[in-house]
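Archive maintenance. Older records in this collection stored only the sequence; we are now back-filling the structure field for every entry so that each record is complete. The fields below show one back-filled record exactly as it appears after the update. Entries are processed alphabetically, and Nucleoside triphosphate pyrophosphohydrolase is next in the queue.

ARCHIVE ENTRY
Title: Nucleoside triphosphate pyrophosphohydrolase
Organism field: Streptomyces thermogriseus
Length field: 351
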Amino acid sequence: MNTTSATTPETAPGRIVLLTTSHRVAPGLLSWPAWQALRTADRVLCADGAHPQLPYLREAGVTVEEASPTAEELVEACAGGRTVVVVATGEGEPAVTDGLARLAGSGRTRMPELELLPASYDLPGARLLDLVQVMDRIRAECPWSSQQTHKGLAKYGIEEAYELVEAIEDGDREELREELGDVLLQVVFHARIAEEDPEEPFSIDDVAGTIVDKLIHRHPHVFGEETARTPEEVRAHWLRTKAVEKRRASVTEGIPLGQPGLALAAKLASRVRTAGLDVPLPPVEGIGYELLALAVRAEAEGVDPEAALRAAARAYRDAIRAVEEKQKKEQKDPGEPGEPGEPEGLEEHEA
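Back-filled structure field:
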């Protein structure tokens, strides 16, 4: 005689589905497994009556109960093999999940089948939406941020760019990630200020759209029918396209004169070399022209003069610190004869 008890529909433990969604994806755009779970569930519960998904679920014919059951109530609701879907709020459902874990750990309750079902996923770059929302609020509510202008923020953009370069040159990955965020903040901040311009407003979407269009247009070997097999061919494509776009009367147009002097000199030299021009250096002596000649030479040899000077300056800084440390050590331990701080020959004088 078989004494093994079979599971009947009346005794089946049932199933709890915790349905999570991303606030960065438009409400109603749910995965097919999520829609299947919602349509076949015996009950659909949501603790947040203002959940952005609810209007779309109800429009699709899904009955949603606004309820916040305990873990024990959920387990009871699944009795008889029933399926209960819980539409999680933005904070998740820690009270429910912790309670279910506690019940499962007690060993005294027959637990239903538990499933975590992501109904929508963040796409790459989704956290940028959070940054835009945070910036909107800061601009509206922060006494300092609400008063800032493009000109007032300009110096911070320069500082953050230099700090980014320093992180790159130091090879500090953690610092690099942070500095990239600081540079990105400057872009989002300026775009947010630009929205308020009464005559020529634009938004972060306009900024992104402009660079997207530019990148596509300047990469016909990726998005068009042209081909480029080497970095040199890519650069040639870029320069030809850029020349048509800008229609510049001089190769010097578009070079910001406010950048550091060595970088400015190297950029001018690069434009001259790329254009195939024969432009001799001014035959004037002096430190400035000597630096100009060095920058032109560095550019011709494929060396970034700014980076080279920074590397030399860092080595000089280390040498300075080494001398300082040596002096400090000598001051602490002046050596014999006599006690520390006593003039040499003091004992003989006193005798």
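Update note: The chain has three domains: 15-118, 127-217, 260-332. The radius of gyration is 34 Å.
Entry marked complete.
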